[in-house]
Amino acid sequence: MTATTLEKRQAGPRAAGPARVRRGRRRGRLIALLFVFPALLLLGALVVYPVLFSVGRSFFDASGTRFVGGDNYAEMFRDPATLKAIRNTAIWVVVAPALLTGLGLILAVLVEKVRWATAFKLLLFMPMAVSFLAAGIIFRLAYDEDPDKGVLNAAVVSVHDAFKGTSTYPTARGRTGLLTQDRDGSYRTTASAGDSVTLPMVGVLPGDLPRDASPARTAAARKAVPGELRGVVYLDFTPGGGGEQGKVDPKESGLPGMKVEAERDGKTVASATTAADGSFRFAGLTAGPYTVKLPESNFAPPYQGVSWLGPALVTPAIIGAYLWIWTGFAMVLIGAGLSALPRDALEAARMDGANEWQIFRRITVPLLAPVLTVVFVTLVINVMKVFDLVYIIAPGPVQEDATVLATQMWLVSFGGGNDQGLGSALGVLLLLLVIPAMVFNVRRFRNSQR
């Protein structure tokens, strides 16, 4: 055997080694590609193709047959509804993530000092298990303007009535021809000191009378003494029929709780509140004529609360519903970051004499900055896509006042506009706004993994 043949035999296995490795790598990549292929197929069908189709569709008219170039994008910024949607989206992006991040941070710090921290976290996180559809229905009912249906207005009305009171007879009105109505809704008549007057009212159902109301006949029969002005406010209606208008009949009831004023020369000189039988009395008056007045406050309509879903408050109201759902999410993520903080730094600050506020502001928040940034950016991406709550909570008449880019895109394309060219342009705009936040978040995740 020659030396050359021996060298070839020895080099054969060595040369075959790298080739076998390359074949193994190719086989591994092929197997990996086969496993990834279903996911790539779904990603292409559900994400890549719709994005590319929407970009192409945005350059065609409503019918999709005529190429219009950038006309849809120009129209998008000329349409007042779209401009309002952009403004509302900006409000959402500025307000909702900031509030949620702040609330999550505060709650995460406070929960550490609560004995039942796990139960508290579970309670705050539970709204995340509720679908946006169900949450929208819940808050649509909670924001109802009728205090008998909307729990928020029921609470507001209760507090208002507790401090300011409410009129007892919002439907009452004076008997025509016997009392004069002023422009402000009050009623008046003229009398002199020493007189007894009757103030007949109508428009009050007998069933709406206060329980302590009693017949006014006896009070009306009392005579006034000199220097005194006496009278009775009564319901000029006899149950079962009969009776005489302007005269207190035996079955007619007084109206208790009515405020009555005596005026002279445009100034109120005395005031009183009617008793259970509707009677009132002004004593110590000088001789001469007076105007006996029932102020408009007696007939003011009941306070109905706040129009939560009106044009002015509909966007803040929907943001409030969004906060209810996502506060638990922010709290849990920030709480996880808080639990990973080095405790020795906090304890060292306490030993150096720092109070809890200084520790929170100078140590906790700076150390949590990466977590807070991730939470904030994640919420920014989420609020840009908000659709369900806005569409469900906002009533039809104020839908345009609450619309955001996602709802405007749907309304223009499918909700009556039938202009999928303009809708696709809105979708592309929404994608362009979301991409920077997504890129920022991905880079954050990669840096944190390194």
Q: Can you walk me through this structure?
A:
This protein is of the alpha+beta class and 450 residues long. The protein has two domains: 71-157 and 307-449, MetI-like fold (Orthogonal Bundle); 173-299, no CATH class. The protein is built from 15 helices and nine strands. Strands 2-3-9-6-7 form a five-stranded antiparallel beta sheet, with no helix packed on it. Strands 1-4-5-8 form a four-stranded mixed beta sheet, with no helix packed on it. Helix 7 links the parallel strand 4 and strand 5 (228-235). The radius of gyration is 38 Å and the shape is elongated. The protein starts with a helix and ends with a helix. 28% of the residues are buried. The model has no long low-confidence stretch (mean pLDDT 86).
Feature tags:
15 helices; 9 strands; single chain; 450 residues; MetI-like fold; 2 domains; alpha+beta
From the spread of the alpha carbons, the general shape counts as elongated
CATH architecture of the largest domain: Orthogonal Bundle
Which residues sit in consecutive blocks of at least 5 with pLDDT less than 50? none
Q: What is the rounded Rg? A: 38 Å
Strand content: 5-15%
Q: Which fold name fills CATH's third level, the topology of the largest domain? A: MetI-like fold
Q: How much helix, percentage-wise, in residues? A: 40-55%
**Number of domains as seen in the coordinates:** 2
Largest sheet: 5 strands, antiparallel
Placed side by side, the strands forming the largest sheet appear as: 2-3-9-6-7
Which series of helices and strands comes N to C?
A: HHHHHHEEEEHEEEEEHHHHHHHH
Q: What is the residue-averaged pLDDT?
A: 86
How many distinct beta strands?
Answer: 9
Count every helix, treating DSSP H or I runs of 4 or more residues as helices.
Answer: 15
Instruction: Indicate the CATH class of the largest domain.
Output: Mainly Alpha
Distance between the termini: 57 Å
CATH superfamily of the largest domain: MetI-like
Classify the secondary structure makeup into a structural class: alpha+beta
